[in-house]
Amino acid sequence: QVQLVESGGGLVQAGGSLRLSCAASGRTYGMGWFRQAPGKEREFVAAISWAALSTDYARSVKGRFTISRDNAKNTMYLQMNSLKPDDTAVYYCAASQTRGVGTSQTEYDYWGQGTQVTVSS
């Protein structure tokens, strides 16, 4: 069983930046970020393969967010730039037992508790 803990969320003005971290208690393979805004379903944000050779992004964040990982530290990151009020959501870290890039929630086996990101206009 792998435990995931997110950190780095907070309140930021539109146009600002935040970096989220996801610390895993053990080795993980494919990892990803999802988010859920109030009244909306959880949606895919970004994913990264085990060796970080492949990444994928939702269209809404492409060019503004960057996903990365440090396997030596069992940690994944999400650098978020040019933030918009529409990015306001709880951001969840997820880990898979497969090595590829997954964009569907059903592909992930472990989930963190989430970290709140609020972008003010």
Tell me about this structure:
This protein is mainly β and 121 residues long. It is 0% helix and 47% strand. The radius of gyration is 13 Å and the shape is globular. It starts with a strand and ends with a strand.
List keywords for this structure.
121 residues, mainly beta
Which radius of gyration do the C-alpha atoms yield? 13 Å
The outline comes out as globular
Share of residues in helices: under 10%
Sheet-strand content, in percent, reads over 45%
Report the uncertain regions: none
If you average the pLDDT, what whole number results? 96
Number of helices: 0
The largest sheet, given as strand count, sense and whether it forms a barrel, is: 7 strands, mixed
Q: Which structural class fits the helix and strand makeup?
A: mainly beta
Q: So what's the oligomer here?
A: single chain
User: What is the first-to-last residue Cα distance?
Assistant: 40 Å
SS elements, strand count: 11
Order of helices and strands: EEEEEEEEEEE
How do the strands and helices of this protein lay out in sequence?
Layout: E1 4-7, E2 10-13, E3 18-24, E4 31-36, E5 43-48, E6 55-57, E7 65-70, E8 75-80, E9 89-95, E10 110-111, E11 115-120
The gist of it:
This protein has no helices and 11 strands. The chain has strands spanning 4-7, 10-13, 18-24, 31-36, 43-48, 55-57, 65-70, 75-80, 89-95, 110-111, 115-120.
